[in-house]
Amino acid sequence: MKETFYNRLTVSAEELGLAIDETTAAQLYTYYEMLIEKNKVMNLTAITEEEEVVTKHFIDSLSIVKCPAIKEILTSEAGSDAFRVIDVGTGAGFPGLVLKIVFPSIRMTLFDSLQKRLNFLNEVIVALGLTGVETVHGRAEDAGHDKKHREQYDLVVSRAVANMATLSEYCLPFVRKGGYFLAYKTAESSEEVAAGSGAVRKLGGVIERTDTFDLPMSDNKRSLVLVKKTGSTLAKYPRKAGTPGRDPLK
Question: What is the pTM of this model?
Answer without folding.
Answer: 0.96
